[in-house]
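seq as requested:
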Amino acid sequence: MQAMRSVIASSLLALSLAGWATGALAGNQQYEPLAASVQAALHAAVSDQAPLDPSFQRSPERARWLAEMSQRLARRIPDETYRSELLRTVHYEATRAGLDPQMVLGLIQVESGFKKYALSSAGARGYMQVMPFWGRLIGAPDSNLFHMRTNLRFGCTILRHYVDIEKGDLFRALGRYNGSLGRAEYPNIVRSAWEHNWAYPPMRLAQNP
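struct tokens:
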């Protein structure tokens, strides 16, 4: 029975993602005026160019995470060096923003299928499908949203902003991220991708390794 439920869940996820790929659920972040203090805080968050956390080289636990996620991502990104760079960056930017890295991987799967140069009909760009107005609003007018770290930094910062607005309600925050607040399709698809493809045992990660 459990195996049957797993097959059904996997089939529903595949159908949902197929619908997403054809644009059936396509959406985008909506422009909303920001208070000056919020705008300044978000600008500071995306402008911080601290080097990536080097602890993967010292932490067996993080090394295991990287190896496991790399194996899962290999079919989509065959280049091992680039795959490792992407995963390290996702982990760093997600953790920095107080988000679960596995959840962010699920979101990227749904948003862009891990395509660096993905471009939606609404103009959203890159792995996390960031809308260009964010560059002008909290970054710089010439922010390159196809650049890996820039895209992931913006995407994680924006999602964190929405989580804060929604007082920790990830379901509603994901709806805001997709521009479909109040509808269940997108949050449910992201959660399904997260749970079925990127779930990983919780790790106790030091804040300052």
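The two ends are 44 Å apart (CA to CA).
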